[in-house]
């Protein structure tokens, strides 16, 4: 049971961004994907979710063996995939609560009961230290950076996907917000769920400890290892990895 | 019984203007033209009807069963229902008010509606019948709304409607005017005039709800609101249907401290043609304004919104903002939304912004990643787009009605919207 990326090549317009990515996340595992700006991390996140601006020219995306490479974004979501966006869109006129209810109902045969929804929502909001009034605001409209990230993690908690990709969820968060968001993610970890945490910095990885770390450079994964790889990166920086790759070539 | 002299004289002047004026064609730079040359004006007539005890079904459906302070219903040329059991206010047919309280009507009637502003304004001033007169005395606070309904339900109808509302100092009220028609097979005309005067310190929540249905109703109307010292008017016109609509909607902050919130929405479909011109006119300093208009177009409809902020000389310390948005939901619809400014004074802040566009793919993608199918995402985004204006109605019953109508129109256009949005995916 896994999210598997096989030899993925992706382009935007004429530019090839991903040049053969292989990655497998099993349920119960947490992987970190690290890399400098422009290495292709966000492209991978968007492609996993089926963003129409990204064109897959080769390779496959498999969820528990099912080929999702050509599936529409909403089909992927209902199949169990989730992306916490680095820059989530603003949805004017739609409150956080209404949006969540819609998203929850989209993956159910029968609509969730109002009471049950309220209970689950209340529980997750408490964990993420979100005020009650927050849910009546329009989704992401006028939200601070931290509020946007919390709203993303609240959606993650409410939708309880099989595999979650977190795209730079730590960026722009102060230390308190980072701790709250990390607690929220940790509470979601378990045997039934896999995580792929995309980050530029090692900061979040001291709160959400990954079992596997992958380093991406110029559209390829160039090094893989355990959590010690993140520590090494913290110490030596991306330039070191770049030199190492150049020496290997 | 002859009408009072002031009215006879006004009708005579109007008739003169009417006869001198040609049927107009409104042209603006670019592709925009609003023409009434297909309207067979001579084939239309003011139709008379008897009063009724029970309201026509379409009226009942729109008003719901909410209680009111006063209700006037005009069908064709006749008032068929007039009710007001609140002794603190006057809500009567205008023709009756002219007879019974000429001293209340004369100072106001046509104060901001000159008879020579074009063929249809003149026609209205010359030929109006029925009408509504609303007088809320000073310091009167109404809990329940005042409602006026203009109904056209037969082809061949010419309706010359006139609502005059005079809101006294520090009075507070809500007024709703509905323009309704069931589907009719043939042409009709509604040439309307609406004027409201909010005296010092008054607070008015005003809504116009127009849905002329799919028949060939032509609406050429002028609506004008004057806001006196420290008064506040929140005005929300809603246009949800009409074969051809040409409306002028003006709000004037006439004295220092007056404040306006002017927000509207429109949704055009099929081959409807909508031409709106709004003016926020600041005649005095220390006034404020906030205008938001939003529209959506489906089918082969045409919609033009032009919004002007006009700040006259000496109106220092005026702060005002106008924004207008228009969303195209079909390949064949055409529209424009033009904000403009005339500022004849320096120490003010006035700004405007406008967008004409389509749905944002980034928003659609985001919603899809939450499992919401594309078609539903589109529906939710369009409804959400209008929500800002819908909430400014500040009237739960009316808000629910408007939301329902928008949802129905979107559902009716679902296929073409999917085609249009799908092409870009």
Molecular structure report:
The complex is a heterodimer of chains A (249) and B (425). Chain A is α/β, with parallel strands linked by helices and 249 residues long. Chain A has one domain (2-88, 143-248): Rossmann fold. Chain A is 36% helix and 27% strand. The mean pLDDT of chain A is 94. Chain B has 425 residues and is α/β, with parallel strands linked by helices. Chain B has a domain at 5-255. Chain B is globular. Chain A binds chain B through residues 49-53, 72-74, 76-78, 82-83, 85, 88-94, 99, 102-103, 106-107, 138, 155, 159, and chain B through 360-363, 365-374, 376-377, 380-381, 383-388, 425.
Key words describing this protein structure:
heterodimer; A: 249 residues; alpha/beta; Rossmann fold; six-stranded mixed β-sheet; four-stranded antiparallel β-sheet; 8 helices; B: 425 residues; nine-stranded mixed β-sheet
Shape of chain A: globular
Oligomer class = heterodimer
**Low-pLDDT residue intervals, each spanning 5 or more residues of chain B:** none
Secondary-structure element pattern of chain B, one letter each: HEEHEEEHHHEEEEEEEEEEEEEEEEHHHH
Strand order of the largest sheet of chain B: 4-3-7-9-11-13-15-17-19-21
- Using the CA coordinates, give the radius of gyration of chain B: 21 Å
* Beginning-to-end CA distance, first to last residue of chain B: 68 Å
The whole-number mean of residue pLDDT values of chain B reads 94
In CATH, the topology of chain A is named Rossmann fold
Helix content of chain B: 10-25%
**Approximate strand percentage of chain A:** 25-35%
Name of the CATH class of chain A: Alpha Beta
Number of domains of chain A: 1
**Structural class by sheet pairing and helices of chain A:** alpha/beta
Uncertain stretches of 5 or more adjacent residues of chain A: none
What profile does the largest beta sheet of chain B have?
10 strands, mixed
């Amino acid at each position: 049971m896994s999210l598997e990326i096989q030899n993925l090549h992706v382009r935007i317009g004429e530019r090839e961004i991903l040049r053969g990515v292989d990655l497998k996340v099993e349920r119960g595992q947490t992987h970190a994907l690290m890399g400098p700006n422009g290495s292709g991390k966000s492209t991978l996140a968007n492609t996993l979710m089926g963003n129409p601006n990204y064109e897959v020219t080769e390779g496959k995306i498999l969820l528990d063996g099912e080929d999702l490479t050509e599936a529409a974004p909403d089909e992927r979501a209902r199949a169990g995939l989730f992306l916490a966006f680095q820059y989530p869109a603003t949805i004017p006129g739609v409150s956080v609560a209404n949006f969540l209810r819609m998203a929850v109902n989209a993956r159910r045969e029968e609509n969730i009961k109002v009471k049950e929804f309220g209970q689950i929502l209340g529980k997750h909001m408490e964990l993420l230290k979100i005020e009650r009034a927050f849910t009546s605001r329009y989704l992401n409209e006028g939200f601070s950076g931290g509020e946007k990230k919390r709203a993303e993690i609240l959606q993650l908690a409410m939708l309880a996907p099989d595999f979650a990709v977190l795209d730079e969820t730590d960026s722009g968060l102060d230390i308190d917000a980072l701790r709250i968001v990390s607690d929220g993610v940790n509470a979601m970890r378990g045997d039934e769920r896999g995580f792929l945490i995309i980050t530029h910095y090692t900061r979040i990885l001291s709160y959400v400890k990954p079992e596997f770390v992958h380093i991406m450079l110029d559209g390829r994964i160039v090094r893989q290892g355990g959590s010690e790889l993140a520590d090494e990166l913290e110490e030596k920086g991306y330039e070191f990895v770049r030199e190492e790759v150049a020496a290997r070539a | 019984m002859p009408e009072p002299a002031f009215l006879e004289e006004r009708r005579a002047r109007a008739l003169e203007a009417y006869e001198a004026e040609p049927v107009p064609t409104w042209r603006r730079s670019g592709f925009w033209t609003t023409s009434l040359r297909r309207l067979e004006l001579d084939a239309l007539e003011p139709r008379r009807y008897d009063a009724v005890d029970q309201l026509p079904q379409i009226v009942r459906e729109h008003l719901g069963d909410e209680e009111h302070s006063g209700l006037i219903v005009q069908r064709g040329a006749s008032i068929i229902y007039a009710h007001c059991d609140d002794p603190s206010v006057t809500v009567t047919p205008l023709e009756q008010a002219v007879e019974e309280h000429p001293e209340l009507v004369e100072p106001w009637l046509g104060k901001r509606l000159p008879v020579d502003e074009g063929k249809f304004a003149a026609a209205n001033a010359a030929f109006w019948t029925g009408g509504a007169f609303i007088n809320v005395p000073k310091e009167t606070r109404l809990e329940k709304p005042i409602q006026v309904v203009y109904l056209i339900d037969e082809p061949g109808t010419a309706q010359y409607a006139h609502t005059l509302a005079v809101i006294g100092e520090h009075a507070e009220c809500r007024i709703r005017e509905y323009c309704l028609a069931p589907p009719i097979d043939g042409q009709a005309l509604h040439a309307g005039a609406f004027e409201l005067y909010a005296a010092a310190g008054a607070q008015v929540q005003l809504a116009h709800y127009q849905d002329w249905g799919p028949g060939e109703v032509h609406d050429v109307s002028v609506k004008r609101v004057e806001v006196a010292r420290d008064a506040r008017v929140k005005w929300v016109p809603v246009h949800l249907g009409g074969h051809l609509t040409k409306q002028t909607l003006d709000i004037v902050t006439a004295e220092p401290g007056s404040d306006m919130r002017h927000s509207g929405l429109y949704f055009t479909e099929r081959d409807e043609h909508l031409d709106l011109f709004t003016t926020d006119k600041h005649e005095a300093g220390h006034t404020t304004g906030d205008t938001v208009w939003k529209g959506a177009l489906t089918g082969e409809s045409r919609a033009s919104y032009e919004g002007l902020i006009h700040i006259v000389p000496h109106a220092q310390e005026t702060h005002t903002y106008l924004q207008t948005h228009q969303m195209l939901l079909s390949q064949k619809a055409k529209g424009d939304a033009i904000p403009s400014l005339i500022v004849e004074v320096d120490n003010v802040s006035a700004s405007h912004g406008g967008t004409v566009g389509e749905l944002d793919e980034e928003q659609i993608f985001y919603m899809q990643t939450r499992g919401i199918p594309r078609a539903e995402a589109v529906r939710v985004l369009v409804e959400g787009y209008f929500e800002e204006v819908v909430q400014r109605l500040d009237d739960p019953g009316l808000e629910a009605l408007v939301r329902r109508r928008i949802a129905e129109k979107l559902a009716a256009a679902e296929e073409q919207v999917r085609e249009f949005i799908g092409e870009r995916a």
